[in-house]
Design goal:
The structure holds 3 protein chains of 3 kinds. Chain B is mostly helical. Chain B is built from 6 helices and no strands. The chains are: A mainly alpha, B mainly alpha, C mainly alpha.
């Protein structure tokens, strides 16, 4: 079974190559080819999944790729365990859904071939990432994923915002990736291996201790934070919404941004070795969750609301991992992948219908877009954590994990965030689908069936996935590196509190945006300072720009001054010296050959005199050369 | 005795002609100096029993080089008023250098007199010819190439551009 | 007292330095070339004397080569003088300073 696992990432790669080789001629077929490839990948992934369910275990195939001096070698290989298989299935499934959806959404776009080949290439990279069995391959695929993300955000490269957003995403994640690379190299330096299994064993065996383990964990977490858009590297994700909506659904909601969470889970033994690192991850995750949720409450761009929601939910997952609740984090990752993809696709359907991203220009779309509205409602309920939708179960698992870890402050953050989440998602849903239509008249119409079908499938899963909780826990605990878990922690009151918070959020949204008993505008005026702060996303972008301008540019100016006046100055002085010296000495060049010749013979005289003065024996040598007695002259002539 | 007197006469003649050559303000006189010096040296070669060389010297120096010199004088317009400008300001320095070289080289020659181990004897022309075609065939061919190149070069340079 | 190799060598040295002096001081290009010929003459005499006193005919061969080179030099040198004269209407070396800075 494992011998054929390599086909799962290989098929999308093949499709990507095939489609791009076909060029414009493959425009009609491009989507079908890539979707077909990922469909077969999904079948194989499901096959592997069922195999693992019946016989849980950890398998690895590997071959040595580069062997360096010493016994450090780089491998190419795959690691198949419940964690990677779950990721495989998620990636294949979401990718398939999004590509089917894209057949409708992207129809008629000029760059459709490019679009599908990038999508397929992304799928390949992501599958390679989750299968990697060593840190070097993992890092390679990590960067490939970043590259495809860059290409797809900037898909409409003729729009300056899209091009800027692509650059921003690439550069911001680069900060984190640098940390990841340094972390990998430090790990390899101490443990003398790149293999993930061996790294885990070595760390468990106590080969990495004290501050070094904390440092390595935090460096690797920097990479995770970059990809998973955790504070303070979260700024790229909202801007990444300039890409096509299905791209946002696949890459920036379900899969790539979850790669950071996956990375922490994959290398969990490394993190588990340092209590400090885990604590920092937990608090940073909690902070991000709350921060992003508050920002999401006041945004007006439908995709940006969802983007901040993604940031917030990823913070949730990080919080769970920081509290050692690996399984809850992964469970939430799974459910979130489904319902967030659904939210994005539904939002795409709305955008498709009304051609705007601004929710203030929508309104009353419910009757026109019945299926979209219904499926989005399912997703919203799942995100809001209303039973029996999937989000409820995974969110409760996280809260329970936090409670079990004894971090009451984070538990509070989690519950408040849950309330805020329900509020902003229902604000979105109510504004878009209910009420009176905005002044603009649209010819809003339901999307074609290729777009509706994925919505329905995803809605079904968003509803039902939560019921698998216990099975999921059991299955995943067989993963390599999973912390040993006993019974799921359980607390009767916590779900109640969370549900209460969610209902409060829902009620508030209902009152403000449906009943309109409380005026949103009035609230904004009353809490003007807070509103402004949230509206400007806590001015984090502005702070970064300020830091870059004032810090880096000042430094650059200083260095430029140094370069211009000290380095160049030195060079210029030398040049001037040479010029002056030349100016002086060129007077010697009188241009008269006779003078040159005279100087030459004068030199000869000087040399002859000095040699004869200091080495009179030279005469003897001359004589021995010219005297026939020695026979040398004879030989010469 | 006769050889000694002959040597000194010819040597003085050569030196005198050489002085005329380098110091005369009249270019034709200088040419005459070269011709006389060549003849004197040819005479010395006869005394060295190198008759063939003496003949070649007269042929080429007096017959060719001096005639070329006359052409040059004619073409550069010094024929009518063949008066040269006085020497340049390097006279003293140049003279000093030449004199120093003379003293040095003569000194080296005289300090360690080299005793000849053969008296000059005539070398048959056949032997010279055989040597040219055997041991020295490579320099000989090189000289022929040099002469060809000089021939072509002289024509090209002297002719100038076709207008 | 007989006339030996040394006499010839000293004589050729005198002729050589005379020619050198001429090369240093002559302002007329033709006269300069004639001085060069004198140098060549001195060298030819030197080689002949050496060859004859040591009984090595190779020296004679080189004297022949030197005479040939002298002829070639004279031809090319005079051609150059003519070419310069045609361009500059002058063969005064003090005024031919194109090589100056």
């Amino acid at each position: 079974m494992i011998a054929h696992v390599w086909l799962i990432p290989a098929l999308p790669l093949l499709a990507a190559i095939l489609v791009s080789a076909g060029g414009r001629r493959s425009a009609r077929l491009a989507g079908s080819i890539t979707a077909g490839a990922v469909f077969f990948s999904l079948i194989m992934a499901l096959n592997v999944l069922t195999g693992l369910i019946s016989a849980p275990g950890v398998e690895q195939v590997s071959m040595v790729w580069l062997r360096s001096a010493g016994n450090l070698s780089m491998e190419l290989g795959m690691l198949v365990d419940p964690l990677s298989v779950i990721m495989l299935v998620i990636v294949c499934f979401i990718s398939l859904m999004v590509q089917i959806y894209s057949l409708g959404y992207m129809a008629g776009d000029q760059g459709i071939v490019r679009y599908f080949s990038f999508m397929s290439f992304f799928t390949f990279s992501m599958l390679g990432l989750v299968l990697a069995n060593n840190l070097i391959t993992l890092y390679m695929f990590w960067e490939l994923v970043g590259l495809s993300s860059y290409l797809l955000i900037g898909f409409w490269y003729h729009k300056p915002e899209a091009a800027d957003a692509a650059k921003k995403a690439f550069i911001v994640t680069r900060f984190g990736d640098l940390g990841l690379l340094i972390g990998i190299l430090v790990l390899a330096y101490f443990l003398n291996t790149f293999n993930i299994l061996e790294v885990g064993e070595a760390v468990k065996g106590g080969q990495l201790t004290g501050h070094w383990s904390t440092m390595v964990a935090l460096l690797i977490f920097a990479g995770a934070a970059g990809k998973s858009a955790q504070f303070p590297l979260h700024v790229w994700l909202p801007d990444a919404m300039e890409g096509p909506t299905p791209v946002s659904a696949l890459i920036h909601a379900a899969t790539m941004v979850a790669a950071g969470v996956f990375l922490v889970a994959r290398l969990f033994p490394v993190f588990a070795a340092s209590e400090t690192a885990l604590m920092i991850i937990a608090y940073l995750g909690g902070f991000t969750a709350l921060l992003a949720a508050t920002i999401a409450c006041v945004q007006n761009d439908i995709k940006r609301i969802l983007a901040y929601s993604t940031v917030s939910q990823l913070g949730y997952m990080m919080m769970a991992l920081g509290c050692r609740d690996y399984i809850a984090g992964m469970f939430h990752l799974t459910t979130h992948a489904v319902f967030k993809a659904l939210l994005f696709l539904a939002a795409g359907s709305v955008i498709h219908a009304v051609h705007t991203n601004d929710i203030r220009q929508m309104g009353g779309l419910g009757p026109a877009l019945k299926i979209t509205a219904a499926t989005m409602l399912v997703a919203a309920l799942a995100l809001g954590g209303i039973p029996p939708f999937s989000g409820f179960f995974s969110k409760d698992a996280i809260l329970m994990g936090i409670w079990a870890a004894g971090r009451m402050d984070l538990l509070m953050v989690g519950i408040v965030t849950a309330g805020l989440t329900t509020f902003y998602i229902f604000r979105l849903w109510l504004v878009v689908f209910t009420g009176r239509p905005a002044e603009k008249k649209y010819q809003a119409h339901e999307s074609p069936w290729v777009m509706i079908l994925p919505l329905l499938v995803l809605a079904l899963l968003a509803l039902s996935l939560g019921w698998l909780g216990e099975n999921f826990r059991h299955f995943l605990s067989a993963s390599w590196g999973a912390p040993s878990v006993g019974e799921a922690p359980h607390h009767r009151l916590i779900p109640m509190f969370a549900l209460l918070a969610s209902l409060a959020g829902f009620g508030w949204a209902y009152l403000v945006y449906f009943q309109k008993t409380i005026s949103a505008a009035l609230l904004a005026r009353k809490f003007a300072a807070t509103y402004k702060l949230l509206k400007h996303k806590y001015y984090i972008d502005e702070i970064y720009i300020f830091l870059v301008r004032q810090g880096m540019f000042m430094l650059s100016r200083g260095l430029a001054w140094f370069d211009r006046y000290v380095v160049d100055g030195m060079v210029n002085r030398i040049g001037e010296f040479c010029r002056l010296a030349g100016k002086g000495t060129r007077r010697l060049q009188v241009g008269r050959l006779q003078a040159y010749l005279l100087a030459f013979f004068l030199g000869l005289v000087v040399i002859m005199v000095s040699v004869l003065m200091t080495h009179p024996e030279i005469l003897e040598i001359i004589r021995s050369y010219v005297c026939p007695a020695t026979g040398r002259v004879v030989a010469m002539l | 005795m006769a050889t000694i007197i002959g040597f000194y006469l010819l040597a003085l003649l050569a030196i005198g002609a050489g002085i005329l050559l380098v110091s005369s303000r009249n270019l034709l006189h200088a040419l005459l100096g070269l011709a006389v010096a060549s003849l004197a040296v040819a005479g010395l070669m006869l005394g060295l029993r190198a008759e063939f060389l003496a003949l070649v010297l007269v042929l080429i120096y007096v017959g060719a080089v001096v005639v070329l010199g006359v052409f040059a004088v004619m073409l550069t317009g010094h024929f009518e008023k063949a008066v040269l400008p006085p020497s340049n300001e390097l006279k003293i320095l140049g003279g000093g250098t030449a004199l120093a070289l003379l003293v040095l080289i003569t000194g080296v020659i005289l300090i360690q007199p080299l005793a000849p181990d053969a008296v000059p004897a005539q070398v048959p022309i056949q032997k010279l010819g055989a040597l040219l075609m055997t041991d020295y065939v490579l320099p000989f061919e090189l000289v022929s190439v040099l002469l060809l190149a000089a021939l072509v070069g002289a024509i090209v340079i002297a002719r100038g551009k076709e207008d | 007292m007989t006339i030996g190799l040394v006499h010839y060598l000293v004589l050729s040295t005198i002729l050589f330095t005379l020619g050198l002096y001429g090369v240093f001081t002559r302002r007329n290009a033709v006269a300069l070339l004639l001085a060069v010929e004198l140098i060549m003459l001195a060298v030819a005499l030197n080689f002949t004397a050496g060859a004859q006193f040591w009984g090595k005919p190779g020296g004679l061969i080189f004297a022949i080569f030197i005479i040939a080179v002298a002829a070639a030099e004279a031809a090319v040198g005079l051609a150059l003088v003519i070419a310069i004269y045609r361009n500059q209407k002058d063969v005064d070396l003090d005024r031919l300073t194109m090589l100056r800075w």
